Structure formats: structure tokens, C-alpha cells
């Protein structure tokens, strides 16, 4: 029991704080509760399809194929594929991390995983189309042309700064 309480102590502390605060400001407490339920429902709608697709990726795509196209010796091809997959993805950013874990399991190069995560969070195609319609094509294209080299640069800088032993530990956790 103590182990469970320790594991969930942050969650319990926040929950108790919100409940206590709700006694002083009922309207805010209800709003927090409604927002929490909304987010939970949204996660339950997004996560299962992602895990189904991940299961299919894990079974259908051989490790050798992933290493060939996105592994250590993939070069520009791996970068472009990571950018495309990240940009074409749908769903919130928390959906990208299970995909990244499967990529690690399949032998994808660490910098390509970082590029994929950066693309998922920054260069999504629906976001580009929304920006083009709302803020103008010039703005959307300019932002994209700045973001893509920025994502690649950040990925390679992080790859150089993180010790190889740390990267290896991350990969081992996905096994």
C-alpha cells in the first residue's frame, strides 16, 4: 500500500489540493473537473488507435527495413522520412512518444527519432493548411522553412550533446 501511495503521491497531492480549493471556489473546482474529464475522454479516443497502428507497425515492418531507411546509415533519406512521418501524423504530441519507442525498438537512428518528434510537434500538414488559410501562405511557408532546418539542427546538436551511454540506456528501456 505504501508503495502505491508513494508512486501516486503527486497525483494524490494535486487531487486533494483541487478538492480543498473547490470548497472555497466551487465554480473553479467544477471547471477543473470538467476539463479533466474532457482531456481523459480525448485521450481515450486517441490512444487506442495509436496503439493499434503501433502493433501493426511492429508486426508488419521488419527491423531490417526500418534500419535500412531510418537507421544509422540512412543519411538524408532517413531525415526526410522522419520529417514526412512526423508531419503527416495526426493527433496530439503525447501520441508521438509510443511511436518513437517502437522506432527505437526497430533500430531507428536517435537523431531521426528527434527529427520525427520535432516534425510531429511543429510541422503537421493540417497545421500548415490552417496557418496558410488564417495567416497567409507567405507566413506559413516562411515558418515551415525556418522550422525544418531548426528541427534538424536541434536534433543533431542534442545527439552530439547527449552521451552515447545515455542514448543506449533509452534504447534499452524500449526492449
From TrEMBL:
Query: Membrane spanning segments where?
Result: 44-61, 81-104, 110-132, 144-162
InterPro entries attached to this UniProt entry: DUF318 (IPR005524)
Give its localization.
Answer: Cell membrane
Please give an example of a GO cellular component term from this record: plasma membrane
Membrane topology term reads: Multi-pass membrane protein
Q: List keywords of the entry alphabetically.
A: Cell membrane, Membrane, Transmembrane, Transmembrane helix
Q: Which Pfam families match?
A: ArsP_1
Q: Does the keyword Iron-sulfur apply?
A: no
Similarity-based family: Belongs to the UPF0718 family.
Query: Mind telling me what this protein is named?
Result: Putative permease
Amino acid at each position: 500500500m505504501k508503495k502505491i501511495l508513494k508512486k501516486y503521491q503527486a497525483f494524490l497531492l494535486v487531487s486533494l489540493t483541487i478538492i480543498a480549493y473547490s470548497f472555497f471556489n466551487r465554480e473553479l473546482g467544477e471547471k477543473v473537473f470538467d476539463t479533466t474529464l474532457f482531456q481523459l475522454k480525448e485521450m481515450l479516443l486517441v490512444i487506442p488507435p495509436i496503439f493499434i497502428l503501433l502493433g501493426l507497425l511492429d508486426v508488419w515492418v521488419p527491423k531490417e527495413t526500418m534500419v535500412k531507411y531510418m537507421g544509422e546509415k540512412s543519411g538524408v533519406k532517413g531525415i526526410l522520412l522522419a520529417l514526412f512521418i512526423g508531419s503527416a501524423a495526426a493527433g496530439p504530441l503525447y501520441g508521438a512518444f509510443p511511436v518513437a519507442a517502437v522506432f527505437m525498438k526497430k533500430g531507428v537512428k536517435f537523431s531521426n527519432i528527434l527529427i520525427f518528434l520535432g516534425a510531429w510537434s511543429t510541422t503537421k500538414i493540417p497545421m500548415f493548411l490552417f496557418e496558410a488559410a488564417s495567416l497567409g501562405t507567405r507566413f506559413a511557408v516562411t515558418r515551415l522553412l525556418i522550422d525544418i532546418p531548426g528541427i534538424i539542427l536541434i536534433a543533431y546538436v542534442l545527439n552530439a550533446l547527449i552521451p552515447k551511454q545515455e542514448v543506449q540506456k533509452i534504447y534499452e528501456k524500449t526492449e
